[in-house]
TrEMBL record:
Main location: cytoplasm
Ribosome maturation factor RimP N-terminal domain location: 8-76
Record gene name: rimP
Name this protein carries in UniProt: Ribosome maturation factor RimP
A GO biological process held by the record: ribosomal small subunit assembly
Functional description taken from the UniProt entry: Required for maturation of 30S ribosomal subunits.
InterPro entries (UniProt xref): Ribosome_maturation_RimP, RimP_C, RimP_C_sf, RimP_N, RimP_N_sf
Natural source organism: Azoarcus indigens
Length: 144
């Protein structure tokens, strides 16, 4: 039986007090990328702690891989969960819908949280509601 790697990673990361933002597995499963976050921001030591713990757990669970990368999600952090869209309300985001909404798939604007299971976005054309289930990808737009 193959171990559910995502559940395993989620368990280890949250057990250490971090949030699992994203997890990527290369097509052949040889490279594992883990993106973690915490309210105060991620340090190199945080990445090392999570990496060391995951390495030990993968050894015990016989997870076969070549390389493990643990890092912060960066300033252009992806928004994946419903909670992300509430937490980052007031910030500027870019969003891509899986299906066109008013003949448009790509949106940019200020995130205004959630309403009835849809993400509320204020764009230069006004307010747009994008059903959460129809979001292909979304990320924060960094401010410098």
């Amino acid at each position: 039986m193959r171990v559910d790697i995502v559940s395993l990673v989620e368990q280890v990361v949250s057990g250490l007090g971090f949030e699992l933002v994203d997890f990527e597995l290369s097509p052949k499963g040889r490279l594992l990328r883990v993106f973690i976050d915490i309210e105060r921001g991620i340090t190199v030591d945080d990445c090392a702690t999570v990496s060391n713990q995951l390495t030990r757990v993968f050894e015990v669970e016989n997870v076969d891989y070549d390389r493990l990368e643990v890092s912060s999600p960066g300033l252009d952090r992806p928004l994946k969960k419903l909670a992300d869209f509430e937490r980052f309300a007031g910030q500027e985001i870019q969003l891509r819908a899986s299906l066109p909404i008013n003949n448009q798939r790509n949106f940019a604007g200020v995130l205004n949280g959630l309403r009835d299971g849809a993400v509320v976005l204020t764009t230069d054309k006004g307010e747009v509601l994008i059903p959460f289930d129809e979001i292909e990808k979304a990320r924060l737009v960094p401010k410098f």
